[in-house]
Automatic annotation (TrEMBL):
<dbReference type="GO" id="GO:0003924">
    <property type="term" value="F:GTPase activity"/>
</dbReference>
<dbReference type="InterPro" id="IPR006297">
    <property type="entry name" value="EF-4"/>
</dbReference>
<dbReference type="GO" id="GO:0005743">
    <property type="term" value="C:mitochondrial inner membrane"/>
</dbReference>
<dbReference type="Pfam" id="PF00679">
    <property type="entry name" value="EFG_C"/>
</dbReference>
<keyword id="KW-0472">Membrane</keyword>
<dbReference type="GO" id="GO:0045727">
    <property type="term" value="P:positive regulation of translation"/>
</dbReference>
<dbReference type="Pfam" id="PF03144">
    <property type="entry name" value="GTP_EFTU_D2"/>
</dbReference>
<comment type="similarity">
    <text>Belongs to the GTP-binding elongation factor family. LepA subfamily.</text>
</comment>
<feature type="binding site">
    <location>
        <begin position="135"/>
        <end position="138"/>
    </location>
    <ligand>
        <name>GTP</name>
    </ligand>
</feature>
<dbReference type="InterPro" id="IPR009000">
    <property type="entry name" value="Transl_B-barrel_sf"/>
</dbReference>
<feature type="binding site">
    <location>
        <begin position="16"/>
        <end position="23"/>
    </location>
    <ligand>
        <name>GTP</name>
    </ligand>
</feature>
<dbReference type="InterPro" id="IPR005225">
    <property type="entry name" value="Small_GTP-bd"/>
</dbReference>
<dbReference type="InterPro" id="IPR000640">
    <property type="entry name" value="EFG_V-like"/>
</dbReference>
<keyword id="KW-0378">Hydrolase</keyword>
<feature type="domain" description="Tr-type G">
    <location>
        <begin position="7"/>
        <end position="188"/>
    </location>
</feature>
<dbReference type="InterPro" id="IPR038363">
    <property type="entry name" value="LepA_C_sf"/>
</dbReference>
<comment type="function">
    <text>Promotes mitochondrial protein synthesis. May act as a fidelity factor of the translation reaction, by catalyzing a one-codon backward translocation of tRNAs on improperly translocated ribosomes. Binds to mitochondrial ribosomes in a GTP-dependent manner.</text>
</comment>
Length: 562
């Protein structure tokens, strides 16, 4: 690694709106630099996670070091491929801290979209060089000139700075490498200073412990060095350092300006904080600023399907949150579902992906309950202010066919199906991004669900006053469908305070499991009665009502997918 002086290093990221072709461009760059062999099978090589391959989207930023020869000089190009979906923009902002420039990829057909704008401003605020790349020029409907004009108008980047490519066919991709070398500055670092390394990502390996992705701002780190974590003040010995090429390749040393990985016997997931600074033992340095913590937007309860799996699930969640530090975790418990957690996610897709990764990577099986948003409650009976509907903030015309609208929305109105409705109403043309605008007062009520007068704790929700009736009715109906008849009548009620707003009734009935066994073998009857008794073990009693565990799951699940 010592062959690469700082002036021959470029650290850059590829950012774009979802599906505009970042991962495909990354594949071509890996091929062009000989990092991977050129074969037809190279599809989204950096999307390593199973969930990424199954869904065809990037959810994790990935690093690859490319070695490239240009005009007789050997360059080290560190490329970070980032996710495009708004739910994963936290990954993007962290990755940018290790970069001096970005390739801003824009689809030649779709033009500038919400995440193009959001990512541009992330890069712009971090004072990075931005190279606009117009991709998919091979498409029949491609209109690169129109996109060039949009870029000039919205980002104030001269249109002649745009590079037009087809990542799929490989057209003009060499110019992208050329631009990375010419237009992105080398990192501003000092190799003679003591080590200062930023942990910008980390993963947990069952056998090797924590693998930290590091960007070196100062100094050198070598295998065998003693390093200290600024966050925990614990000392470790470096067992392995190297570059991602794109798989781990040990190098013994990493120098300032370089990006790579480091393994130092951190066994506990709480030891490797993303945003932490590592320095050499007895050579303390001023820690790097680290990262703003992510703000969760959607909350959900998570419980093991079987309580005996609690500890395994706990460890799986800890390991996965190490790799995805934007998830917040608080312990929680529910009468029906037992001990569990309340998790905060950046969006619904993020929640689904996290859940799927737990299943795929840790073989965990979980129950996820209704996503809710946090409210601040002022406990007073008289102060009620009218709920706000969306308020338009501004409107900017990007070009003749495209307009950017800014609205203030109650978060609760957008977390469930707003995005899907927007997509279908606009035939897929509209795109959407959001940021937190703080708390607003609204007319909210706490709705209880009662079974024969007893409160079902796990079904308590906070809803808007105007929607309480319809939501309460829907929950009562769903619960009615999932409750078995019992020896007495069951009243299912939705209530706000002492006021009942919806009601369903399950008629009394005892299932006679022996009804069809006329005469015949007594052992068969015994078997049926035994099975009925076993089934009852899976019931939970609320007052005198026996509720099968999956009844809650059905109600909670349908609510969340509504
Ligand atoms: N026709 C055409 N299709 C392309 C081109 N580049 C990418 N695609 C296709 O566009 C789709 C999205 O490409 P990806 O590279 O996965 O996009 P991405 O931006 O990495 O997506 P996320 O990481 O999920 O945000 C894939 O089906 C690609 O095959 C191109 O130059 N031309």
């Amino acid at each position: 690694m010592s062959r690469f002086p700082v002036e021959n290093i470029r650290n850059f990221s590829i950012v774009a709106h979802v599906d505009h072709g970042k991962s495909t461009l990354a594949d071509r760059l890996l091929e062009l630099t000989g990092t991977i062999d050129k074969t037809k099978n190279n599809k989204q090589v950096l999307d390593k996670l199973q969930v990424e391959r199954e869904r065809g989207i990037t959810v994790k930023a990935q690093t690859a070091s490319l070695f490239h020869n240009c005009e007789g000089k050997q360059y080290l190009l560190n490329l970070i491929d980032t996710p495009g979906h708004v739910d994963f923009s936290y990954e993007v902002s962290r990755s940018l801290s290790a970069c001096q420039g970005v390739l801003l990829v824009v689809d030649a057909n779709e033009g500038i979209q919400a995440q193009t704008v959001a990512n541009f401003f992330l890069a712009f605020e971090a004072q990075l060089s931005v190279i606009p790349v117009i991709n998919k020029i091979d498409l029949k409907n491609a209109d690169p000139e129109r996109v060039e004009n949009q870029i000039e108008k919205v980002f104030d980047i001269p249109s002649d700075e745009c590079i037009k490519i087809s990542a799929k066919l490989g057209t003009n991709v060499e110019s992208v490498l050329q631009a990375v070398i010419e237009r992105i500055p080398p990192p501003k670092v000092h190799r003679k200073n003591p080590l200062r390394a930023l942990v910008f990502d980390s993963t947990f390996d069952q056998y090797r412990g924590v693998i930290a992705n590091v960007a070196l701002f100062d100094g050198v780190v070598s295998k065998g060095d003693k390093i200290v974590s600024a966050h925990t003040q614990k000392t470790y010995e470096v067992n392995e350092v190297g570059v991602l090429n794109p798989n781990e390749q040990p190098t013994h040393k990493l120098y300032a300006g370089q990006v790579g990985y480091l393994i130092a016997g951190m066994k506990n997931v709480t030891e490797a904080q993303i945003g932490d600074t590592l320095y050499l033992h007895k050579q303390p340095v001023e820690p790097l600023p680290g990262f703003k913590s992510a703000k969760p937007m959607v909350f959900a309860g998570m419980y093991p399907v079987d309580q005996s799996e609690y500890n395994n699930l706990k460890s799986a969640i800890e390991k996965l949150t190490l790799n995805d530090s934007s998830v917040t975790v608080h312990r929680d418990s529910s009468l029906a579902l037992g001990a569990g957690w309340r998790l905060g996610f950046l969006g619904l897709l993020h929640m689904e992906v996290f859940n799927q990764r737990l299943e795929l990577e840790y073989n965990a099986s979980v129950i996820l309950t209704t996503p809710t948003v946090p409210y601040k409650a002022v406990l007073s009976s008289s102060k009620l202010i009218k709920a706000r509907r969306a308020v338009q903030k501004n409107m900017i015309f990007i070009d003749q066919n495209r307009v950017m609208l800014k609205y203030l929305f109650p978060l609760n109105e957008i977390v469930v199906d707003f995005y899907d409705s927007l997509k279908s109403l606009s035939s897929g043309y509209a795109s959407f991004d959001y940021e937190d605008a703080g708390y607003q007062t609204a007319e909210l009520v706490k709705m209880d669900i009662l079974l024969n007068g007893n409160n079902v704790e796990e079904l308590v929700t906070v809803v808007h006053k105007d929607k309480a009736h319809s939501i309460g009715k829907a929950i009562c109906e769903r619960l009615k469908d999932s409750l078995p008849r019992q020896l007495f009548e069951i009243a299912i009620q939705a209530a706000i305070g002492s006021k009942i707003i919806a009601r369903e009734t399950v008629k009394a009935y005892r299932k006679n499991v022996l009804a069809k066994c006329y005469g015949g073998d007594i052992t068969r009857k015994m078997k049926l009665l035994k099975r009925q008794a076993e089934g009852k073990k899976k019931l939970r009693k609320i007052g005198n009502v026996e509720v099968p565990k999956d009844a809650f799951i059905k109600v909670l699940k349908t609510q969340s997918s509504k």
